[in-house]
Amino acid sequence: MNPPWRPAQQCRPGSDTLDLWRIELVERAGDYDLLSAEERQRFDRLIVPAKRRQRIAARAALRRILAHYLGGAPGELCFEYGEHGRPAVVGKSLPFNLSHSREVAVVAVTERGLVGADVEWKEPERRLDALAERFFAPAEWRSFDALPTEQRFDVFYRTWCRKEAYLKAQGTGLSFSSRRFEVEMPDPATRGDGPT
Q1: Which of 48, 163, 57 shows the shortest CA–CA distance to 100?
Q2: Is 157 left (phi over 0), alpha (psi -120 to 50) or beta?
Q3: Which of 3, 18, 45, 145 sits at a 20 to 30 Å CA gap from 112?
Q4: 8 versus 187: which is more confidently predicted?
Q5: Cα(70)–Cα(109) distance, integer angstroms
């Protein structure tokens, strides 16, 4: 059986590139056993079984991926958390970031600098105009508002992911307003399919 995680691209040790791993959030035998006591307690408190399974699968895959780089056993990795909850492996300098949405997750890993990743499941029923007006910078909102209706859905999600990934790379989460900075708006002519 193929693992539910695989490298979308992989860098060489010491290079300036990053690895991006795509994870299908399917719980595997042994996933729960890889978790620390604190992780088990946190995930056991989740009421919705599907969300609990997805979180367990994501954290277990993250542990396996980081062990791939650092050596040692995935279950032996210890995490510490920054002021806004950003995890790091205790005693190691390997920037990484995990994001998940429904059945898919991504992990970005690099040996140099900060890294952020975000994945979002595209939900057709969301009120995108209201969200864009509230969370996009004023110039981003004006560009978005000027788009034809049929282009807004894809551009919204791609812009949202860029902004979330930037905030996660900075380690601030939503404590820093997403309206206070701009990202390059994606070209509406290029579309992404599936999760963004």
Answers
A1: 57
A2: alpha
A3: 3
A4: 187
A5: 12
What is the Cα 101 distance to its own chain's centre?
Answer: 8
Task: Give yes or no for a contact between 167 and 180, defined as CB atoms under 8 angstroms apart.
Answer: no
- Render pLDDT for 105-126 as a digit per residue (tens, 0 to 9): 999 998 878 899 999 988 887 8
Q: How far apart are CA 192 and CA 154, in angstroms?
A: 7
CB 80 within 8 Å of CB 88: yes
**Total-model pTM:** 0.81
SS3 string of the chain? Answer: CCCCEEEEECCCCCCCCEEEEEEECCCCCCHHHHCCHHHHHHHHCCCCHHHHHHHHHHHHHHHHHHHHHHCCCHHHCCEEECCCCCEEECCCCCCEEEEEECCEEEEEEECCCCCCCCCCCCCCCCCHHHHHHHHCCHHHHHHHHCCCHHHHHHHHHHHHHHHHHHHHHHCCHHHCCHHHCCCCCCCCCCCCCCCC
- Position 5 pLDDT exceeds 70: no
Report in angstroms the alpha-carbon separations of 174 from 89, 123, 164, 169: 22, 21, 8, 12
Beta-carbon count within 10 A of 91 CB: 8
